[in-house]
Amino acid sequence: MARGKPADTRSLRQRGNIWFIQKRLSPTLSKHLGKKILQQSTQTGDLDEACRIRDRVLADLGDLEAQLKGEASQRQQRRMFLQARDQLRVKWTPKFGPGAKL
User: Fold this and answer.
1) What is the tens place of the pLDDT at every residue in 42-88?
2) Whole-model pTM?
3) How far apart are CA 81 and CA 27, in angstroms?
4) What is the DSSP string of 64-98?
């Protein structure tokens, strides 16, 4: 393993040589998807790749749940925070002195 630390195998189960995502769904997602547990193949035997796939799937599930609840997901909140921070940086950039753009 290239990272030099133990892999985070939460929500991952290995069957044979293939890693599967196994995650209990919230009541909101369960009602929408029609099942209580998500079981999906990552179609890879590489643990690092399976972790990346799992992270994308779980983030997508979080976005879907937030959308169903009419809320902003963590990814959307982070994006809004970064945009607001960048706008403040532009607004408060010094006009004179070191680092000023002329």
Assistant:
1) 999 999 999 999 999 999 999 899 888 888 888 888 888 898 888 88
2) 0.69
3) 28
4) HHHHHHTS--HHHHHHHHHHHHHHHHHHT--SSST
